[in-house]
Every structure is written in structure tokens, then in C-alpha cells.
Design brief:
Elements: H1 3-18, H2 30-39, H3 53-58, H4 61-77
Length: 103
Amino acid sequence: MNEQGSKGKEGIEEERRSEGTDDNEDMITIEELNELLKHVKNRKSCGLDNLPMELWIFGGNELKIYLLELFNQIIDKNQMQQEFETGIMINLHKKGAKIKCEN
């Protein structure tokens, strides 16, 4: 049985996260970041930082390089800041009685 079969997908992912990475193959390239930014949706609500997605998309190369360094630092250290793990959920009323949560 191969290594993946004996540990399972979750075990391999956990092992990968627990190890620091010294090789560059796990690092994100500027080309990969640009490709990702082509597919994100505009006009979405901001996160806790109040920065709209359009800022990251149209912010220019200097901002993209900063973002790339941040992502690669997270990958290299296998550690994310607590602020990145926090989100806000807001219920938006669309139809029906406002008093019912399922509306």
C-alpha cells in the first residue's frame, strides 16, 4: 500500500502543515496570484480590514508583491494570524416577515 493509502488524505495534509517548508515549490508565484485574482468576484463585502477585493485586484504590482510575501510567509511558517481566522456574518433580510430568522 502506498504512503497516501496508509495515512489517508487528512493525515498527509496534517503532516504537511506541521512541517516547516524550506523548498520553493510550495511558494506562490506572482503568476499564480495574478491568475487567482482574475477569478475573484468584485462587489463583495469587505472583511474585518474594511479593504474591498477591488483594492487587491487593481492595487498594482507593489501591493500584489506585498500580498504575495504575506501568503508565502504564512506557507513558510505554517502559521496564520488570528485576525485571518475571524469573520463576521450578517443576516440580510430578503423577503417575508422580518421577525422570522429563516426569512
